[in-house]
Amino acid sequence: MKVFYDSDADLSLLDGKTVAVIGYGSQGHAQAQNLKDSGVNVIIGLRPNSPRVKEAQAFGFEVYSVAEAAQKADFIQILLPDEVQGKVYREEIAPYLKEGDVLCFSHGFNIHFGQIQPPKNVDVFLVAPKSPGHMVRRMYEKGAGVPHLIAIHQDYSGRAHDIALAYAKGTGGTRAGVIETTFREETETDLFGEQVVLCGGATALVKAGFETLVEAGYAPEMAYFECLHELKLIVDLMYEGGISAMRYSVSDTAQWGDMIIGPRIITEDTKDEMRQVLAEIQDGTFAKEWLLENQVNRPQFNALAKADEDHEIEEVGKKLRAMMPWLKATK
Ligand code: NDP
Ligand code: MG
Ligand code: MG
């Protein structure tokens, strides 16, 4: 797999261009601030009533409505929540696209699932940092960067690849390394990862472990520490050195339990279900259901979220975290 670094990227491809970052949330603020500090001419597009208008202005950005920003820009980076991108694109961006513009994303969902269908005479690609926005900013400020992905959907100019790398240089991505992928691969692996392992798998595992201990009569506080709190320590070790480094750090008793019991928890049946989940991502079932859920104002999303907010693990967690004021939660 080819990795691109600073020396492969030419930031001057953005000279004389106006980059509109649409949205100023997690990714928007980070990418915009890094680009600005890299010398790129960046403006921000937001809804007029957005509480983030002031924040962006305080950093020295000119802030416009989405439509005005799209009109002024040669390069439009859409950093809105994925489920609103289609509507905002159709109403406030598409009418202002001109020949040779760049349309950019940090996730392939809307292009891959056909919610945004750009005209033929613009470049369309993604530049996606592989980390939350705040890390994108923090690492850049330290003189480092986080790895990025790029993928080209449409190369009208014949230079889409180089322009994407230039953008990734501006956000600090080429300091760490940029990997090229496709919209399909980025979208499907991202959805699979968050559903099966990172969010869905992890929360279901934590809750099931907690419930099993509490139902067997153990103190919820003990169950919380063992099944939720300590997970971070283990994940940090895996993050830094892989599974082997984690196993080197824990006791041999823990490692034996890991190796002998793990496969009884995540079984062949579980893997069959993972394959089914992947198939539903690939054939558009997941995308369709999520887009429809949004169209009817999220009744199921809200009900499921509420049920989990009321789960005992959240109650006991609140109390225990109050004993650990150094843990800073993102609300
Ligand atoms: P956020 O939810 O953090 O930010 C959303 C921004 O969009 C806010 O500034 C919000 O402004 C604005 N917004 C929401 N709805 C509208 C609307 N209807 N019209 C105009 N502006 C609106 O998004 P993220 O940064 O998490 O995600 C942006 C993109 O980056 C997505 O494609 C996501 O998949 C991708 N991504 C995100 C990562 C992350 O770290 N979160 C990691 C990698 C990729 P307001 O103040 O008005 O609410
Ligand atoms: Mg995702
Ligand atoms: Mg232990």
UniProtKB/TrEMBL annotation:
Entries under PROSITE patterns matching the protein: KARI_C (PS51851), KARI_N (PS51850)
Residues binding substrate, per UniProt: 251
Annotated pathway: Amino-acid biosynthesis; L-isoleucine biosynthesis; L-isoleucine from 2-oxobutanoate: step 2/4; Amino-acid biosynthesis; L-valine biosynthesis; L-valine from pyruvate: step 2/4
Sequence positions that bind Mg(2+) 2: 190, 226, 230
Domain KARI N-terminal Rossmann: 1-181
GO biological processes: isoleucine biosynthetic process; L-valine biosynthetic process
Keywords in alphabetical order: Amino-acid biosynthesis, Branched-chain amino acid biosynthesis, Isomerase, Magnesium, Metal-binding, NADP, Oxidoreductase
Any one Pfam family match given in the protein's UniProt record, by short name: KARI_C
Residues that coordinate or bind Mg(2+) 1: 190, 194
Residue spans crossing the bilayer: none
Protein name in UniProt: Ketol-acid reductoisomerase (NADP(+))
Active site: 107
Alphabetized GO MF terms: isomerase activity; ketol-acid reductoisomerase activity; magnesium ion binding; NADP binding
Record flagged with keyword Nucleus: no
Gene giving rise to this polypeptide: ilvC
UniProt key word NADP: yes
